[in-house]
Amino acid sequence: MDVPLTKIIFARHGATDWNTQRRYIGHTDLPLNELGRNQAKELGSALARFRLDAIYCSDLRRARETAAEVQRAVFEAGRSRPPIISDARLRETDFGWIEGLTYEEAMARFPEEMTRWYEQMEMQTPPGGKESLSEVRSRVCHFMKEVSGQDYSKIVIVTHGGVINSWLAHIGKKPFWENPLKHGEWTECDGQEVRETE
């Protein structure tokens, strides 16, 4: 019988310039800004007390840079250096035509498409985007099922707000919009919930 995951820590990456400017960033591959680097270091300090089997992260730079800070902090705390494993299934939603725009700019340019998306996010893609909320949740669930088959007891998953909200809503923590983690924040959940949702 497999040893079930006991704990999963979800962490949101540190901020980029577009995040601080409140722009849709999606798949655009920006680095952390100064604020984001500080948030990543604080996240690493907070997680350094844990013995981690692995750090998974989105393949986008902002998540990889944040994961590297967590790895560094854990190692400097005298623990084994956990491997970092990047996975495209942990990417944020592709926001299509509105990437780089603020909410106000997006509404001004694409009022009908934006309204339709916000009213029907479960099945509707962002304007010019490729995935609905249900499609994002599907790829996250496939990733989580795969991870649950590994012989881990505690892992960190460094990813994006939409991904975290999708999973927490899926396992019944809170509705999608009620799971806001700020950049550099983290939350812990029971790894057994992964197996129970299969």
Automatic annotation (TrEMBL):
The active site is at H13 (tele-phosphohistidine intermediate), E92 (proton donor/acceptor). GO terms for cellular component: cytosol. It comes from the Bacteria. GO terms for molecular function: fructose-2,6-bisphosphate 2-phosphatase activity. Pfam families: His_Phos_1. This is Histidine phosphatase family protein. Keywords: Hydrolase. PANTHER family: FRUCTOSE-2,6-BISPHOSPHATASE TIGAR. Substrate binds at R12, H13, G14, A15, T16, D17, W18, N19, R62. It comes from Paenibacillus sophorae. One of its GO terms (biological process) is negative regulation of glycolytic process.
